Amino acid sequence: MTTTDLSRPAETEGAQLPRHDVTDIGIARDGVTRIEWAEREMPVLRLIRERFERERPLEGMRIGACLHVTTETANLMRTLKAGGAQVALCASNPLSTQDDVAAALVAEYGISTFARRGIDRDGYFGHLNAVVDTHPQLTQDDGCDLVSLLHRDRRDALPGVLAGTEETTTGVIRLRAMAADGALMYPIVAVNEALTKHLFDNRYGTGQSTVDGILRATNILLAGRHVVVAGFGWVGKGIASRMRGMGAQVAIVEVDPIVAIEALMDGYQVMSGLEAAAWGEVFVTATGNLHVFRKEHFERMHNGAILANSGHFDAELDLAALREMAGGRVRNLRRDVQEYDLGDRKVYVLAEGRLVNLAAAEGHPAAVMDMSFANQALAAEYGAKHHTELKPDLYTMPADIDREVARLKLEALEIKIDQMTPEQLKYVSSWQEGT
Ligand SMILES: NC(=O)c1ccc[n+]([C@@H]2O[C@H](COP(=O)([O-])OP(=O)(O)OC[C@H]3O[C@@H](n4cnc5c(N)ncnc54)[C@H](O)[C@@H]3O)[C@@H](O)[C@H]2O)c1
């Protein structure tokens, strides 16, 4: 944990700042410029912010958010504040924080922020606890760490929580398990399940930003290279298609037979993990599962193999096994690249196996987070308005909100689509029409 006292407000140059723990408040201006740059690409969130400023649907509501501290998240925080909320933010991953953004949130936007890039485990949970200390009434989580903490160690703060939202697949899986066990104590909206979230963010956002992270870390040529993508869900589909777009030869590793056939019919090679280990040059995991590549795979990999993960947790690559195989011969080669010397071969791990798109690049482009965070803002409004009608359970995004986000995005892009004619409406809703 850092030495900053999280219990008191900080002061910089005489100005009273909200409580925070950030790396360097002096770099706030850099953050503001980048937050404004991202905002240009977030027209839907801007429209929502303007409405929130007028209507103040979150007036007085305390929101505790645990999200990647990026420029796009900063624009979501501004939107919630415009709606009248008091927001406290911590990071949902120790390596995804953009320090200038964290500083800007505190110094320029007056939002309590607890996040430092590269924080250790104790510091990471210290930041989550600092958010819980604000006694949030609404939670916003990305991966369920905040909700888990509230339900395990900080039950003192549970009674005041009215509702929550969850951003990602892995978090939704954990919440579903909690709901099935009867352990979940308040209603949570699964933002990830909105079509305007996972169809775009998970697929196109992660697809592009994963390639971006791998390239920033390594600067390798992808054309002609053998790339293995483990998991062909929404994230894996995006990564595979973008890798192919860069000229790579792509093979998919799956455990679901239907998804494996889908990959095959999309034109990818499909092989087992062991076959892929010997074939691949670059490996990317996107399964949400544990130890997808482990000792038996590392043993078959070529000299120079590059390993990256884009799944939520750093558990997809069995790095403990790899470290043991390297017998301590591990060194930092360049930013976000670690070399593991296995004796006869060397393999390279990017961003310590954490989500490579956020740790080695800047996460998803703002244009796609526009829709994800429009859903987050509207889900917060929905939770604030409807929490008394909801039981402690996991809820999907109401379909009308989902469609509204899509409608606003098209409107912002000035793209018109057709509407069915009355004749067509009648035709598609009648069972009497036919040959
Ligand atoms: N990096 C990011 O910015 C980002 C963005 C969105 C989601 N995520 C995370 O990415 C992960 C995947 O998300 P998704 O939405 O694609 O999930 P998904 O459920 O749509 O897909 C996961 C796929 O992995 C497959 N799988 C499971 N175990 C496997 C194994 N051992 N080997 C091979 N395949 C296996 C499943 O069959 C499934 O097809 C989650 O952890 C999610 O939270 C990350």
Short description:
By secondary structure, the protein is an alpha/beta fold.
Distinctive features:
435 residues, alpha/beta, eight-stranded parallel beta sheet, eight-stranded mixed beta sheet, 17 helices, 18 strands, globular, disordered N terminus, binds nicotinamide-adenine-dinucleotide
Topology at a glance:
Elements: E1 11-12, E2 15-16, E3 20-22, H1 28-39, H2 43-55, E4 62-66, H3 71-82, E5 86-90, H4 99-107, E6 112-115, H5 121-132, E7 138-141, H6 145-152, E8 163-166, H7 169-180, E9 188-190, H8 195-218, E10 226-230, H9 234-245, E11 249-253, H10 257-265, E12 269-270, H11 273-279, E13 282-285, H12 295-298, E14 306-309, H13 319-326, E15 330-334, E16 337-341, E17 346-350, H14 356-359, H15 366-386, E18 394-396, H16 399-412, H17 422-429
Parallel strand pairs: 3-6, 4-5, 4-7, 5-6, 7-8, 8-9, 9-18, 10-11, 10-13, 11-12, 13-14, 14-17
Antiparallel strand pairs: 1-2, 15-16, 16-17
Helix pairs in contact: 1-3, 1-4, 2-3, 2-15, 3-15, 8-9, 8-15, 15-16
The structure holds nicotinamide-adenine-dinucleotide.
The site of nicotinamide-adenine-dinucleotide (NAD) has 29 residues, from helix 7, helix 8, helix 9 and helix 14.
Radius of gyration: 22 Å
Describe the sheet with the most strands.
8 strands, parallel
Low-confidence stretches: 1-5, 7-14
Average pLDDT, rounded to a whole number, is 95
Helix percentage: 40-55%
Amino- and carboxy-terminal Cα gap = 72 Å
Structural class: alpha/beta
The total strand number stands at 18
Query: What spatial form do the alpha-carbon principal axes imply?
Result: globular
Strand order of the largest sheet: 3-6-5-4-7-8-9-18
Bound small molecules, which ones?
nicotinamide-adenine-dinucleotide
> DSSP strand (E) fraction?
15-25%
| Total helical segments | 17
